[in-house]
Amino acid sequence: xxxxxxxxxxxxxxxxxxxxxxxxxxxxxxxxxxxxxxxxxxxxxxxxxxxxxxxxxxxxxxxxxxxxxxxxxxxxxxxxxxxxxxxxxxxxxxxxxxxxxxxxxxxxxxxxxxxxxxxxxxxxxxxxxxx
Length: 131
Prior knowledge:
Blueprint: H1 4-30, H2 33-38, H3 48-65, H4 74-97, H5 104-120
């Protein structure tokens, strides 16, 4: 099991990532397509309903990341991080196919941070159980 300091750092990381994905998810769900295009949202290349759905899913997964604060629900945070990695891989592919390479470093950083969460947000192992 990770140390208390490691758990605290992962919790802070989850909080920051949740704030980020709640913000960008909100915008994808509710902002005009013109605003999304101006800010480089990858969902403008999807049908509008699909882009809005991505926004709602990002907000839901942001809430899932906050479950890191409930020890019995750490698996929810882990799965939320894994699904957000898939989201960022798709985002990177869309950016790449539309020659928006300036967005790729952000996708890479987010993937790395989410990967760290997915590794360290494992639920606690029951005492006496095999790891």
